[in-house]
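Deliverable D2.4 — example input (structure tokens):
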């Protein structure tokens, strides 16, 4: 049969269908990978293997980074990119130090607080980020931004105050876990800000950056394992509990898979779509954690969660609608976005020259 020329509208519909498919594919990949990552993280740090608890967080950081280095190396060979470092090595090292510190705090916190608290802690930074924005950059925020920030911050606070938040088999106090989460937020903020600078100043490809940051992070975590004599202890634990090895491998693989999906989505669909995806991921991860590990939850805590979810939903919808309206108004012009995920924006200049 001869092929007829496709009418413009049908072609446009097909291409928007195509782009909707990829958007959902990347989104599903992010939510799925990070869901597996979250469940395994909680399984490894909070639940026993036999009668043993695993307590060496740095070992997990090391395994994650080792798998990521292998992945980045394969991708660099596959895309025939240069493996030379694009930025000065000390910059990679600075990012790696804060990155290892942040990951360590995140895993370690799960020994003291349950996973939903760790997830909610991440949305707690909304208000501080806005206040810093006003203080340092003289930013101005609309009514909706404040509403969302109050809903989310209020919801998280209520959740923390009105029910049990400790890890099921915890040893220390939950205050200990909260302190680790605060440290995590500080280090994480530094990591992403510095990484954004790196992308702007030195046009690094995503795999190049992945290779060097993860290689340095792997080195830093390996040295700290060796220095504290924890390496032998970790390997002994692996030997005693083969199930732990399997969990750790899938933890690392899902982290790397998640990274790949995130890079791809940000590159093709921008920061706002990514921010909305991460909000959805938060909701799904928290609910699945409750179902899987049967944490206790109080009625007031449920109200807290509803407030947070409402705030996040509000933020995503208004962000995406706003972007859609802007697109209609200025077809083809670059979109401005100043969301906190804007930092992911430069996540992949793939050799484009400014």
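Example output (designed residues):
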């Amino acid at each position: 049969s001869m092929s007829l020329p496709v009418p413009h509208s049908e072609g446009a519909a097909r291409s928007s269908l195509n782009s909707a498919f990829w958007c959902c594919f990347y989104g599903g990949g992010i939510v799925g990978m990070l869901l597996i990552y979250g469940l395994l993280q909680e399984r490894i740090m909070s639940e026993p293997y036999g009668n043993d608890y695993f307590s060496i967080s740095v070992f997990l950081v090391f395994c994650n980074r080792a798998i990521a280095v292998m992945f980045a190396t394969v991708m660099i060979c596959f895309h025939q990119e240069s493996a030379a470092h694009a930025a000065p090595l000390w910059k990679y090292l600075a990012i790696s130090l804060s990155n290892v510190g942040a990951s360590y705090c995140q895993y370690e916190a799960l020994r003291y607080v349950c996973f939903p608290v760790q997830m909610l802690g991440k949305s707690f930074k909304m208000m501080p980020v806005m206040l810093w924005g006003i203080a340092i950059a003289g930013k101005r925020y609309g009514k909706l931004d404040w509403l969302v920030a109050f809903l989310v911050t209020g919801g998280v606070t209520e959740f923390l105050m009105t029910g049990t938040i400790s890890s099921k088999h915890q040893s220390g106090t939950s205050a200990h876990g909260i302190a680790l989460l605060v440290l995590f937020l500080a280090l994480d903020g530094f990591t992403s800000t510095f990484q954004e600078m790196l992308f702007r100043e030195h046009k690094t490809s995503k795999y190049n950056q992945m290779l060097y940051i993860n290689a340095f992070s792997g080195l830093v975590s390996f040295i700290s394992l060796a220095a504290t004599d924890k390496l032998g202890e970790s390997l002994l634990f692996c030997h005693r509990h083969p199930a732990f090895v399997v969990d750790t491998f899938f933890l690392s693989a899902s982290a790397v898979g998640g990274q790949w999906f995130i890079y791809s989505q940000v590159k093709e669909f921008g920061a706002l779509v990514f921010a909305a995806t991460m909000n959805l991921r938060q909701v799904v991860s928290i609910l699945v954690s409750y179902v899987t590990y049967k944490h206790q939850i109080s009625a007031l805590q449920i109200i807290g969660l509803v407030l947070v979810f409402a705030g996040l939903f509000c933020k995503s919808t208004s962000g995406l609608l706003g972007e859609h309206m802007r697109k209609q108004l200025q077809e083809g012009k670059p979109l401005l976005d100043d969301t906190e995920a804007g930092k992911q924006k430069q996540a992949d200049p793939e050799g484009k020259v400014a």
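The chain is about 75% helix and 0% strand.
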